[in-house]
Amino acid sequence: MPEPDSRCPSLSPEPEAEHRARTAPRGATQQPPEESMPLVAVSVFKGRSPEQKHALLEAVHEALVSAFGIPEPDRNIRLNEYAPGEWLLPPGKTERYTLVEIHAFAGRSPEAKGALYARVVSNLGALGVEPSDIFVIVVEQPRENWGIRGGQRADLVDLGYKVKV
């Protein structure tokens, strides 16, 4: 077998970053994956400790990493808390009701979404939230509808991970 030759790309191993730079769409910028999406809001009633709040956010993040394959450092999750009387719930829901709203790039398969829903319910269940008190919604938009990394169209940015899982 011939020795790798730096003058011949077919025989030289190409580092991943160089490959992404070479194959990215024209005008795309190279950024580390930790600056990417999705955006998540977790809504609950007031009354949890700071540790419990952090655990809720981490539980949702772990589900995203597991089901959608986003990079571990990629997190943009906020907690919305409501006092009694500020949120009207469907019948049968308790004060532990948890709404998880995920805004993501379009492209995840139904199987990936199903895995996400199951993982969120499992993770929140470990924190004492009953499955019947968990509602998860994924809102997808095309990448060109997102302005990221200084206002660039997301469809022109190399995210560093696959959206179509």
Helix content: 25-40%
CATH class: Alpha Beta
Tally of domains: 1
Distinct helical segment count: 3
Task: Give the biggest beta sheet.
Answer: 4 strands, mixed
**Average pLDDT figure:** 82
User: Structural class of the secondary elements?
Assistant: alpha/beta
Query: Could you name the ranges where pLDDT drops below 50 across 5 or more consecutive residues?
Result: 1-36
Strand order of the largest sheet: 3-2-4-5
Just name the CATH architecture: 2-Layer Sandwich
Task: Return the CATH topology.
Answer: Macrophage Migration Inhibitory Factor
Give me the CATH superfamily: Macrophage Migration Inhibitory Factor
Number of beta-strand segments? 8
Q: What is the H/E order? A: HEEHEEHEEEE
Q: Kindly report the oligomeric state of this protein.
A: single chain
Specify Rg, calculated over alpha carbons: 20 Å
Distance between the termini: 36 Å
Which word captures the global form?
Answer: globular
What would a concise description of this structure say?
26% of the residues lie in helices and 22% in strands. By secondary structure, it is an alpha/beta fold. The protein has a single domain, classed as Macrophage Migration Inhibitory Factor, CATH 3.30.429.10.
Provide the descriptors you would attach to this structure in a database record.
165 residues; alpha/beta; Macrophage Migration Inhibitory Factor; two-stranded parallel ribbon; disordered N terminus
